[in-house]
Amino acid sequence: DKYYITGYPRNDYLLNQDGVKNLNILLNKKIEGKIILYMPTYRNDREEIGLDDNIFGIFEFNTETFYEFLENNNITLLLKLHPNEERILISKYKQYVGKRIILISNLDLESKKMDLYKIINAVDLLITDYSSIYFDYLLLDRPIIFTPVDLEYYRDTRGLLLEPYEFWTPGPKCIKQQSLQDEIVRSLNNLEYYKPERENIKNIMHKYKDTNSTDRAMSLIEEIMEG
Asked: What is the pLDDT of residue 227?
């Protein structure tokens, strides 16, 4: 009786915003082709264990080859670091920025008074390692790829909230570069790929799949204050 499910107010933006328009405003340009977003979870040991050696922390990752892959497939990668890591890592991650890789910082969002969730529905595919962002992204019913490059280490040091990992992560798992590139193409070309798994987790995680979570939260606050 101490809990009331309203849905996340921020998720209303996923369904009621023009993400493409908002992204164009944020970047001051229009992106052609497919858009993928990589959002890793917060790590206080990323440098210590070498996960910052490349964008995804994948062993023997070739950034030049990945650029060619993005160019050949007309794909743009948006990179958004966790706010708690951004100050430390942003200077290093800027080396990856180019025509096909765009780094979005909190400062960029603040300068345009833009909430991150107002641009997310412009994204055709989400890539993450362990971030809970993918639970929200499920509302869009779009492909998700996971890069658990250090799953056992993460499980032992941080722990996973939900097990088994395979069940709760409705998308392909990629720990090698070629696998990641192959799965990006497959996921973008076949929206039915992993769709049943996404639908299953979405129905478990989300009681509401509408744009009224803010209204429900505000009504609850008003009800408590009036009571």
From this structure: 77
Q: H or E element: which one contains 112?
A: none
Rg of the chain over all Cα atoms, to the nearest angstrom: 18
SS (H, E, C) 124-151: CEEEECCCCHHHHHHHHCCCEEECCCCH
Q: How many CB atoms lie within 10 A of CB 57?
A: 20
Number of residues written out for the chain: 227
Cβ pair 118, 22 in contact under 8 A: yes
- 37 forms bridges with which residues in the sheet? 78, 126
**Tens digit of each residue's pLDDT (9 = 90 or more) over 179-220:** 999 999 999 999 999 999 999 999 999 999 999 999 999 999
Structure tokens that stand for 83 in this block = 């706010």
Cα–Cα distances (Å) from 94 to 14, 167, 219, in that order, read 27, 34, 43
